[in-house]
Amino acid sequence: MIQALAAYVHKEPQEVAHLISGTWDPYTTSFAELIHESGVVVDDSKPYPFFLAYPVEGEVEKLGERNEWQVEWKWDGIRGQLIRRGGGIYLWSRGEELITDKFPEIESLLPLLPDGVVLDGEVLSYRDGLPISFQYLQTRITRKKVSKKQLEEAPVVFMVYDMMEYNGIDIRSESMAERRARLEALVVEVKSPYLIVSPLVQFNDWNELPQLMSTARERGCEGFMLKRKISPYQAGRRRGDWWKWKIQPMTIDAVMVYAQKGHGKRGELYTDYTFAVRDGEALVPFAKAYSGLTDKEIVVVDRFVRQNSIDQFGPVRTVKPELVFEIGFEGIATSNRHKSGVAVRFPRILRQRTDKLVADINTLDDLKMLLDQYGKT
User: Fold this and answer.
1) Cβ-proximal residues to 10 (8 Å cutoff; 6+ apart), any chain
2) Is the C-alpha dihedral spanning 234, 34, 90, 135 positive or negative?
3) Which domains does the chain have, with CATH numbers?
C-alpha cells in the first residue's frame, strides 16, 4: 500500500510511511491533508516507521569486517517507540497501538527526558537485572487498568537501542554509531531505572559469536542483532544493514487434536491447529500454531480434518489424534492458564513427522524438562 501511495503522490515510500502514521482520524482528515503534512494539525505523538531486520543468511563472516558492525542482544519483549514531544510522552507499539497507559513506569520518564526526543527500544518485564517471562507483559497489555499487584509482579523497563529524533530534529540520516553515542549520553543524563541502554556484545572475531549465542536463553534473549555502524535509520524491512540472528528453536513432537478455519484467503481451510503431548495415556494440549506449512501441505491437512472429525464445538473441530508434527518455539514459561502448566512463545510448525506415530510423540515430562532448563517464572 505504501509503495502504491508513494508512486501516486510522487514521494519516497519512507516519507509516506511516516505521513500516514499517528492518531489522525479517517473521518475528519482528507487524503490531501494527510499526504501534504502542512495541512494537518501538528501531532506531537506521531511515530516514525520502524526499521526492521532480515534474518541472517548463511555465515556471518560474509557480512564483512567485524569492526564495521555492532552486535546487541535480541530482546524478547514488545517493540516500542517512546516519544517525548510538546510536553507529553507517548509509547507506540510496532503495531501502531498507543500503549502508554499500560506502563506507568515508562510514563514516569516524562519529567526526566528532554523535549523533542524519539527512542526505539523494547518494553521488557525485568527483575534483578534480567528479563522475566513474556507472559507478565501480556497481563499488562490485556488489562484496561494496571493494578498495584501487577506493577509489583510484572515490573517493566524500556530497553532502548536507537534514537530517531533529538532536540526536535530528525536524526535518522545520521549513522548508527552517531545515534548510539547520542543515546548513551542521554541515558546517563536521565539516570532512571526504567530506561536502560541495550548493551553491546563485546567480541574480537566473528567465530566468537556462536559460543556467546549459547548463553542467550539464560540471559532472556532470542539471539543477536547485527547493525552496520554507518547505517542510517531506515523505514520498514530493508536488506543489508540490520540483521537478526536467532537461536535455534526448542522443539517438541506433538499430535494435532483440534483444528479451526483460518482467516482471509484461508478462511475456508482448516489452518489453525492445536497440538498435544502425552501424559501417561492422556493427551494434554500445550500449543496452538498456524504457520509453517506450505499451501499444498495445508490442503492435505484440511482434507484429513474434514474426513477425521470426531466432535465439533463452535468453529473448532476435534480430530482423530493421528497427525504428528514437529513444533518449534522460542521460549517456555510456567502458566496457570494452561492445562499443561506451561506456555510456549511463538509456536510454529517445523515439519510433519510422517515417520512417527502418536506413541512416539514427546511427553508432558519432556516439556517440563525444557521448562526446568530454559524456562522463566
Assistant:
1) none
2) negative
3) 1-43 (no CATH), 44-246 (3.30.470.30), 250-374 (2.40.50.140)
Element (H, E) at 332: strand 331-334
Task: Tell me, yes or no, if 74 is annotated catalytic.
Answer: yes
For the entire predicted model, the pTM comes to 0.74
121/129 Cα distance (integer angstroms): 17
| AA letter at 33 | E
SS3 assignment, position 291: coil
Nearest to 304 by CA among 269, 274, 276, 277: 269
Round to whole Å and give the CA distance between 316 and 376: 31
Could you list the pLDDT tens digit for every one of the 377 residues in the chain? Answer: 878 887 887 777 767 777 777 777 788 778 777 777 554 456 889 999 999 999 998 888 889 999 999 999 999 889 999 999 999 999 999 888 899 988 989 999 999 999 999 999 999 988 888 887 776 777 777 667 777 777 777 789 999 999 999 999 999 999 999 999 999 999 999 999 999 999 999 999 999 999 998 888 888 888 999 999 999 999 888 889 999 999 888 899 999 999 999 988 888 999 999 999 999 999 999 999 999 999 999 999 999 999 999 999 999 999 999 999 999 998 888 888 888 989 888 899 999 999 899 999 999 999 999 888 776 55
| DSSP output for 184-244 | HHHHHHH--TTEEEPPBPP-SSGGGHHHHHTTTGGGTEEEEEEEETT----SEE-TTTEEE
| Grid cell digits, residue 343 | 506456555
- From the list 46, 62, 74, 145, the catalytic residue is 74
Report the residue count for the chain.
Answer: 377
